[in-house]
């Protein structure tokens, strides 16, 4: 073993092959268009690139008017949920190598929420449903001064899955019931209600169960599993909804 | 930056029929599996099988209160189960408004008519009504 020196530079790694990938993006500029239109872009991509990288390349190098949301670009903030080849995905978690690049890749805004521009929708109806389920801890008793509220590992594990939600709206905007009239609370709101309903430190589960036992509540769920399939965090959304249904029937978590 | 309005009242109150509808679908579904497959087994496989079915076979079944209640239970459960499913489809595929109300009204009307007629027939069925001309009666009535 010898220490690598400048006299012996490492062998040049084989160049990684890049491909020209065609993206068909559903554009909509409210100032110009009356209807959304599909526009195609050819982008040079590596298999390890993500759809978000393609959108960046288009915006930075080809058409600066392309509009989309993204913040962290690493699957945590939940800003860049979009419909990629007909499935709701986070653009920052969808690798080019996982898509069939022999055909164009279709990218459009998520459905069921009002389209504002290009890939951006108005998220307000989605957040309104979220607020309605009271997604915050409501304990009846105060914690001992200077102490945390004690919770066992099993009690924490009960709602662990639903704590993972990043509110990207991929589930709610993949739900055919939500598409119909947008009145249904939607999977994301129910997931976030589940997170507090089954939290042993919270005392207002009854209130949330009452809210979800509504005409537009959990009973509109048809168990189509679109939400579970869409969730970029792997939350078992349909199972969480089923657990809330059971809790509504019991009247307690 | 304005404060986010927080809803202090749930959207709607009152009896929640959606919950009972959901529970009804589960229970009637399980019962219907037994009733429908029992019905098919008795009609199509027992004894002579499907060849035995004729006017007399049905008349014979409906002379027995057991089969009367079996069929009436099946009729009510299946029609309400099916209509509730159709109502769900209407909710999912139409926007609230006149069309939705017409479709739901038509569903309700057809279910009520079918349930009333069906129940009436099952309990009042008389294969050999007294005083009918002999040529209109099935052959076994003469006995």
TrEMBL record, chain A:
Keywords: 2Fe-2S, 3Fe-4S, 4Fe-4S, Iron, Iron-sulfur, Metal-binding, Oxidoreductase, Tricarboxylic acid cycle. Its EC number is 1.3.5.1. GO terms for biological process: respiratory electron transport chain; tricarboxylic acid cycle. It catalyses: a menaquinone + succinate = a menaquinol + fumarate. Residues 19-113 form the 2Fe-2S ferredoxin-type domain. It is an enzyme of class 1 (oxidoreductase). Signal peptide: none annotated. The keyword Iron applies. CDD domains: fer2 (cd00207). It comes from the Bacteria. Pathway: Carbohydrate metabolism; tricarboxylic acid cycle. The keyword Repeat does not apply. GO terms for molecular function: 2 iron, 2 sulfur cluster binding; 3 iron, 4 sulfur cluster binding; 4 iron, 4 sulfur cluster binding; electron transfer activity; metal ion binding; succinate dehydrogenase (quinone) activity. Residues 155-177 form the 4Fe-4S ferredoxin-type domain. PROSITE patterns: 2FE2S_FER_2, 4FE4S_FER_1, 4FE4S_FER_2. InterPro entries: 2Fe-2S_ferredoxin-like_sf, 2Fe-2S_ferredoxin-type, 4Fe4S_Fe-S-bd, 4Fe4S_Fe_S_CS, Beta-grasp_dom_sf, Helical_ferredxn, SDH/FRD_Iron-Sulfur, Succ_DH/fum_Rdtase_Fe-S. Binds 1 [4Fe-4S] cluster. Binds 1 [3Fe-4S] cluster. Its cofactor is [4Fe-4S] cluster; [3Fe-4S] cluster; [2Fe-2S] cluster. Belongs to the succinate dehydrogenase/fumarate reductase iron-sulfur protein family. NCBIfam families: dhsB (TIGR00384), PRK05950.1 (NF004616). This is Fumarate reductase iron-sulfur subunit. It comes from Agromyces agglutinans. The lineage of its organism: Bacteria, Bacillati, Actinomycetota, Actinomycetes, Micrococcales. The gene is sdhB.
UniProtKB/TrEMBL annotation, chain B:
Keywords: Heme, Iron, Membrane, Metal-binding, Transmembrane, Transmembrane helix. The keyword Transport does not apply. It is found in: Membrane. One of its GO terms (cellular component) is membrane. GO terms for molecular function: metal ion binding. The chain crosses the membrane at residues 21-46, 66-84, 105-125. InterPro entries: SQR/QFR_C/D, SuccDH_FuR_B_TM-su. This is Succinate dehydrogenase. It comes from Agromyces agglutinans.
């Amino acid at each position: 073993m010898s220490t690598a020196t400048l006299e012996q530079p490492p062998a040049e790694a084989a160049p990684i092959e890049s491909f020209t990938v065609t993206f068909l993006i559903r554009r909509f500029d409210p100032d110009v268009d009356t209807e959304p239109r599909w526009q195609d872009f050819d982008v040079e991509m590596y298999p390890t690139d993500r759809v978000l990288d393609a959108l960046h390349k288009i915006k930075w190098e080809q058409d600066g008017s392309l509009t989309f949301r993204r913040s962290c670009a690493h699957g945590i903030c939940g800003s860049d949920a979009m419909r990629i080849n007909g499935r709701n995905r986070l653009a920052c978690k969808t690798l080019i190598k996982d898509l069939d690049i022999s055909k164009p890749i279709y990218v459009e805004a998520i459905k069921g929420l009002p389209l504002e521009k290009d890939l951006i929708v108005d998220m307000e109806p989605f957040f309104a449903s979220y607020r309605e389920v009271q997604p915050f801890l409501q304990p009846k008793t105060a914690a001992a001064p200077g102490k945390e509220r004690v919770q066992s590992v099993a009690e924490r594990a009960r709602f662990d899955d639903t704590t993972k939600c990043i509110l990207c709206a991929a589930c709610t905007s993949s739900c055919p019931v939500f598409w119909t009239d947008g009145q249904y609370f939607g999977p994301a709101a129910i997931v976030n209600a589940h997170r507090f309903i089954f939290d042993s430190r919270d005392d207002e589960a009854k209130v949330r169960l009452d809210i979800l036992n509504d005409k537009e509540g959990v009973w509109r769920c048809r168990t189509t599993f679109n939400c579970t399939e869409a969730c970029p965090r792997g939350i078992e959304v349909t199972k969480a909804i089923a657990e809330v249904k059971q809790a509504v029937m019991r009247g307690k978590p | 930056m304005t404060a986010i309005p927080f809803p202090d009242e749930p959207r709607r109150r009152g009896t929640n029929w959606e919950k009972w509808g959901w529970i009804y679908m589960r229970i009637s579904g399980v019962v219907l599996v037994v009733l429908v497959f029992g019905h098919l087994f008795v009609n199509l496989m027992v004894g002579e099988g499907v060849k035995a079915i004729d006017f007399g076979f049905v008349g014979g079944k409906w002379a027995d209160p057991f089969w009367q209640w079996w069929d009436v239970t099946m009729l009510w459960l299946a029609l309400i189960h099916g209509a509730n499913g159709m109502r769900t489809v209407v909710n999912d595929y139409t926007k609230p408004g006149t069309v939705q109300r017409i479709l739901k009204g038509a569903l309700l009307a057809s279910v009520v008519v079918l349930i009333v007629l069906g129940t009436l027939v099952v309990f009042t069925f008389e294969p050999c009504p007294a005083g009918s001309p002999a040529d209109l009666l099935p052959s076994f009535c003469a006995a």
